[in-house]
Task: structure prediction
Amino acid sequence: MSSAPAGDALLALYPILTELTARARQRLQARAQLVQVPAGTTVFDERQACQGFPFVIAGSIRVVKAAPNGRELPLYRVTPGETCIISSACLLGQAPYNARGVTEADTTLLVVPTDDFQALLGEQAFRDFVFQLFSERIADLMQLIEEVAFRKLDQRLAALLLGKGQRLHITHQQLADELGSVREIVSRLLKGLAEQGLVALSREQVEILDPAGLRRLAGA
Amino acid sequence: MSSAPAGDALLALYPILTELTARARQRLQARAQLVQVPAGTTVFDERQACQGFPFVIAGSIRVVKAAPNGRELPLYRVTPGETCIISSACLLGQAPYNARGVTEADTTLLVVPTDDFQALLGEQAFRDFVFQLFSERIADLMQLIEEVAFRKLDQRLAALLLGKGQRLHITHQQLADELGSVREIVSRLLKGLAEQGLVALSREQVEILDPAGLRRLAGA
DNA sequence: GGGCGTCTGTAACCTTGGTTACAGAGCTGG
DNA sequence: CCAGCTCTGTAACCAAGGTTACAGACGCCC
Result:
């Protein structure tokens, strides 16, 4: 847990932090905790109090809303260089978490205690950075609300398939998880897409044959 | 459009502003625009650029996500003393609006230009205020996502009926609008609730007979 | 009182998505 | 090679919610 290399990685990933005052940077180095968590760990969950603000150094956190019946709806991911809007909101509002965060891979976090986070916010540069991420994530959430409230699943699936290259190596189950749905439905819909000539299917693979067609479907 | 009375009302509604530095307050007074809008006006809409930050002095703004087919899902309301998270997010991220704002009643706004809003954020007191509202609204949005993604309509209806007193003067259509659904379904569900003895129905009125039962239904 | 607009009740029907229940395909390690 | 695993295909059935189409109720104004 040497803080110097962590500090280097931190500054590389969050260049905004180089604009902090020397004092703030020292405080960060002194107080922040470097934490290693294996893949699949729940790092926070609904109703928990927020213990600190996480910078993601390596790995990623998948933030989901969990249904009573066990299904999950992904809200967003936090990857190195980003911040977690829900953690910010909980710290700022002194409210408990209202979603769950699970590591997708082995993950390294630098956790900043609550009051140090508040102090960081006093710095113009950091504040702008947090606000910026905030506003991006709000836009994402609005997009998500629009999707779950108004879009049909085939449209959401089409959108999900786009922008990831021409061949996706992924199982139907994983696609279903991304959509908050179930495997059988995704299989059924993929079959439909294949019949329209939009994709070609094989084991653990989806090949995009007609991106424009998919886009049309997704946008409709 | 005299700014003095507007200023008084503003300070009464947003007491946090009394903690601003004199300079910031003067700037506010000098630059902010007092605007009157009648009920039913669309004050901002999807894809529009954000022109300024609105303080609500009187009236209220209903912020909704509009579906392609014309239906609307209410996200939240902005009443006097509150702020609009989407406006903040758009200003901060220099992104266009991603929702629609419609006045519910005749409404008085004090609109602060973009760069003055940015300047205001430099003030600790105002920043804390905006952050605070931010975090509350995020929590609301998370709640909303949970509801539209996981809850059945009867549960959402039950929740909607609670906490508004014992007799609600409201039409089925208005309830449907709040839920982003349609009148027929709300009528059907209300009938169900009435048959369970939870409510009693009459023209433009819903009487809550069994609040505990409704809560149980809503929470399930 | 009669006409009109709003509000409510309700039935038939449809679409979407989820559930249940298997069967078979393909890989992998012993 | 074959036992067992994961992944896929698929059919039957179901529940929720939306759509369409009316009919009657109530209130109001002329």
